[in-house]
Amino acid sequence: MLGLFSSLDCSLDVFFVEALLNGVLLAGLLALLALGLNLIFGVIDVVWICYAELVMIGMYAIFYFVQVAGIPLPLSFLLAIGLVACAGTILHYLVIRPVLDQPPINQLLVTGGVLFLLQAAATMAFGIEFRNLGIRLGSVNIGDMSFAWSRIITFAVALGAMILLWQFLTRTYIGTAIRAISQDRQIMPLMGVDQKKIYLATSAIGGGLAGLAACLMVLQYDIYPQIGLQFGPLTFMICVLGGLGNMVGGFVAAFIIAQFITIGGSCVATEWGYAVAFLFFMLVIFVRPQGLFGAKS
Amino acid sequence: MRFLRSAAACAAAIGLVASASLPAAAQKEIKLGIIYDYTGPFAGGGSLPAAIATKIAVDMINERGGVEGHKIVATYADAQSKTDVAINEAERLLNEVKVDALMGVFSSAHCVPMAAKVDAAKKFMWANVCVASAVFKGKGLQYVFRPQVHSDQFGEASCSFIAENAKAKLGKDAKDISVAILYEDGPYGTGVAAGNEAKCKELGIKIAHKEGYAATSTDLSALVTKLRRARPDVVLHTGYNPDITLFLRQAKEAGLKFDALIGHGAGYGQIDKLIETFKGDVNFFYNVDPVAAQLLDPKSLAAGMGDVTAEMVKRYKAETKVSEVPPHASMGFNQQWIFLTDVLPRAIKKHGGFDPEALRKAALETDIPSGGTIQGYGVKFFPPGHQMSGQNERSSPVVMQYVDGVTKIAWPSSLKTIDPVLPFPKGHAYAR
Questions:
Q1: A82 closest CA partner among A215, A242, A273
Q2: Cross-chain residue pair A270–B217, CB shorter than 8 Å
Q3: Contact (CB<8Å) A146/B255
Q4: Could you read off the pLDDT of A92-143 as tens digits, one per residue?
Q5: What is the CATH number of the domain that holds A48?
Q6: Which domain covers residue B219, as residue numbers?
Q7: ipTM of the prediction
Q8: Total-model pTM
Q9: Distance (Å, rounded) from C-alpha A56 to C-alpha A44?
């Protein structure tokens, strides 16, 4: 602990500002990941523990579309989003639907089982190699600061996706039905909303968001079967911190956690950034078990 | 009468079958439990090459008739890049499969707890690849042995290399050189970083920045920013994958510049994969590791060692279809070969078998001079009572440099096959 304080260096210089802005850029990706998971939980009331594994499937799909099938990158992105959306729908139909009326622990264990299944299947199918598309988008320099285009694009697309989703949820019939179901699962079927169809549509949108996250992550990260372990716990923590099922809460929580990681990493040490983020999470959960923006059940 | 004839024929047939199967049944077996990471991040970080080469060693020995008339029966277990799985597999192999000795093990994070556990149970363990000094340092282990280089030596090698080349290549005295020490925060990275820090300080090299991080970090941009602020001449990095690729990618994107990067095994030992990902950006990178055996001049080794290396390389390439055989293959093979051709025969002949006590005595008597193994170094274990008891005191790493996809030896000068390229040439992605 003494080492922690002795290495404290928070000079308010250009590098500090760079770390701060890098935190904002990282938050975009984390917020997008949390958005899909929150949407599904908010509507269906089931936590897809295997959400990051769907992202992994999307990343592998893009890799094979581009490297093996020779499909242009933009088209590969669209195909991957469609594929993961389908995977989300299939996951709901085959795995979630049968346990909808089961206790939450059963639902959690089932999706946990899917997590291990997908990881093992990916290892068998794609091998243990770390793969990537070899895309280098360069960076933009502002004074002495430098920011990767891949991160800027990720942030912009993630922000755009969130705005689009919000528009969809507030301005379309299906979107309104999705929001209504998330507010009252019992009443809406009595008002003519087909709950099963809404669940399937939500799963497809959630899967599509995982596919979109995959498109952005292949620009920054290697693809390997366990990449879900790198992002899954963090995403889940952000969702819980923001209030499970609360999309705005998840968005804000992503920014808080990302700043802990980058500013904590910049002022103290990288490993302490994560430690402090998790400590903050624990403290919030002690005080507000429903998360920062969650409603008391 | 007919019954008697039938019974006699039956008995004769049974006798024939029994006598035919007798030699096979009579061949004694030695059961080895070999643990590596065949899946998970460590597999691609070097564990799989080590595992493949270890099996090649076992196969070659069995093809030669085994060890003192004993066939080697190996059970290969997958630790899945998880410490808890590694420990469970070790217990399964020892208690259920009833292996006579445990070996392999890639990750130091697995090695440290496993060695302590196996030793406490008075079972025999032979560590092939893991390097953390913490496996042995101050532990007083009795039944665990490691011919492999240890992490303190990794850390020392890179600093010695910098000091020896500072004036000639960088135009500065060692005391004017600054390094950044980056490491994954497990036993492997921490051990190497401690070696880096101690040796660099001893040589007067400035440590501009030292920092650990979790190998599963999703973002290292803050670390890169700090390095841009500290402006080290040389980056000393110890990591696995995917952290190495994440760091290199974010470092390039952030415009981090330095004169040289020296990696320390694991992810940096996989040059084929680094080139696949970063192309020319990793040209002229250095890597500290026990030498890849095929890089050594066979004439500098004991008679027959060159042939063993050639056979290993031939089989490894046939199985994996790679062009460059990574150092991890040599590590897995070499330690296995030492055990099977030196320790085990002596245990059987001199100490009457291959129980943990016999193997321990035989290991403590190991005395292979320099040049006596395919990786060049000799083998003699620090004795009981020494703070590193069980560790090979004659092991030594080399500093290799990757030049246009080919691995060259840059240090020590007695083995070097290249005049090191230092600093990076102009135009290099990380050149100042």
A1: A215
A2: yes
A3: yes
A4: 999 999 998 889 899 889 999 999 999 999 998 998 888 888 888 888 988 8
A5: 1.10.3470
A6: 152-289+398-411
A7: 0.85
A8: 0.84
A9: 22
